[in-house]
Amino acid sequence: MRGQSNAFAFTEETLRALRADAPGCESVIHFNNAGCGMIPRPALRAMIEHLELEAAIGGYEAAAARADRVRDFYAAIAELIGCAPRNVAFAASATHAYSKALSAIPFEPGDVILTTRNDFVSNQIAFLSLRRRHGVRIVHAPDHPDGTGVDVAAMAGLMRSLRPRLVAATHVPTNSGLVQPVAEIGRHCRELDLLYLVDACQSAGQYPIDVDEIGCDLLTATCRKFLRGPRASGFLYVSDRVLGEGYEPLFIDMYGARWVGPGRYAPAETAARFEEWEFPYATLIGSAQAVRYALRVGLEPVSRRTPALAARLRERLAAVPGVRVLDRGRELAALVTFDVEGWQAQPFKQAMDARGVNSALSFREFAVYDFADKDVEWALRLSPHYYNTEQEVDEVAEAVAELAEQVRV
Ligand SMILES: Cc1ncc(COP(=O)(O)O)c(C=O)c1O
Q1: Quick check: 66 and 57 in contact, CB under 8 A?
Q2: Is the minimum distance from the CB of 201 to ligand 1 under 6 angstroms?
Q3: What are φ and ψ of residue 259, in 5° steps?
Q4: Centre of ligand 1 from the C-alpha of residue 58, in Å
Q5: Rounded mean pLDDT, 222-247
Q6: Ligand 1 centroid vs 95 CA: distance in angstroms?
Q7: Ordered domains of the chain (ranges, CATH)
Q8: For residue 190, which of 27, 226, 347, 400 sits 20 to 30 Å off, Cα-Cα?
Q9: C-beta separation of 88 from 291 below 8 A
Q10: Is pLDDT above 90 for 242?
């Protein structure tokens, strides 16, 4: 196909323009988008401009002067996930958003948190901490016997028998390319009227997300990964139902609530209830620009191109002697995980760094269930994004093949 970038959704011209907006593309092969995506130029410029304005007229004054850009953070996220701006709270990270959400649930001893074996490590630790402090019961739904993620029918059975206080699922875990069927889980939650929290940290910016379709009450994500926003920026979606039922974070401040009398406070009507008074305004503005950029590129084409690049990489790696590709699932996202016979984790990552390839390591303690099931001690994670090229995929696979070969001779 002339002018087309193979079956990978974007024309060569589009791809060139997108790469020109990603300053680092020419000097490094950035396959660590599941760690942190490369910030696009418009977002970078907006942040720098705001910091310069703060230096020129004062921090509070700059926030007031750019109130429209700040408001756009909420409007952009709302457009991204299919809700109203009032349902969006800024958070410093996905973990910050997640712990705010958990803190709003008045757990009692014996309450059940029903989750999966592939929920994010920090979420699992938070559940354990709630068990230690409040005596909740943590139940992990079994995986499907064919190794394709959680067994939704079994999970629904546990919902019916245990009536969990909270159902929690991670859309795409950090430790593999698995895409969990969060909307199927959500349908059961809605049917049974159960509170449902979704971690969309790795899927936001990689797939279209619609909170109504997922059927969740709460959803968390960062802006820095596939959304390509700045670091230390994320968000929490809070449904009208949750707001209406009066859920509020354990520690609520003078922004999340008004002190209306000596013994009383009134929580904000909107998801602002989950925010605090102080904001990193340049970061909010940069995140809004990054989300607008993602919306312009289009989540639908991104969701075709990005996993397709990963699929090509998996295919190339699977053919390399000594490499074990670890991702299992009906549908796989752009997180490619594998280990290499004869190599230790750090030296292998360093060898990839030396070849100009950005990657990330995962260890057993990042995925206690999944890595035990797969008998994995460490894995290298490569996560391309839409602005990467097929040529880069092939170069990276070639680099892995050379390294794997080194220890075999
Ligand atoms: C699935 C998932 N959830 C949550 C997080 C935590 O995000 P943050 O570092 O923004 O707290 C990550 C980070 O890698 C993740 O992969």
Answers
A1: no
A2: yes
A3: -85, 95
A4: 33
A5: 98
A6: 6
A7: 12-30+298-406 (3.90.1150.10), 44-296 (3.40.640.10)
A8: 226
A9: no
A10: yes
8 Å CB contact between 159 and 192: yes
State the CB neighbour count (10 A cutoff) for residue 375.
Answer: 10
Distance CA 279, CA 161 (A): 43
Query: For residue 137, with 0-12 CB atoms within 10 Å meaning exposed, 13-18 middle and 19 or more buried, which class applies?
Result: middle
The 10s digit of each residue's pLDDT in 292-314 is 999 999 999 999 999 999 999 99
How many Å apart are CA 303 and CA 349, to the nearest integer? 27
Both tokens assigned to 368: 């206690």
Atom 16 in ligand 1: residue holding the nearest Cα: 174
Best of 116, 119, 120, 366 for a ligand 1 pocket test (most atoms within 8 Å of beta carbon): 120
Model confidence at 7, pLDDT cuts 50, 70, 90, reads: low
Task: Judge whether 203 and 212 are in contact, CB under 8 Å.
Answer: no
Spatial contact of 185 and 164, defined as CB atoms under 8 Å apart: no
The pLDDT value recorded for residue 3 is 41
Task: Answer yes or no: is the C-beta of 234 below 6 A from any ligand 1 atom.
Answer: yes
At 261 the three-state DSSP class reads strand
Residue of 122, 198, 224 with the most ligand 1 atoms within 8 Å of its CB, for mutation: 122
Task: Work out the number of other CB atoms within 10 angstroms of the CB of residue 197.
Answer: 26
Q: Is the CB of 242 under 6 A from ligand 1?
A: no
CA angle 325, 326, 329 (to 5 degrees): 115
Q: Are 104 and 247 in contact (CB under 8 A)?
A: yes
Work out the percent of the chain whose per-residue pLDDT is above 90: 96
Residue in the block written with tokens 């803190």: 103
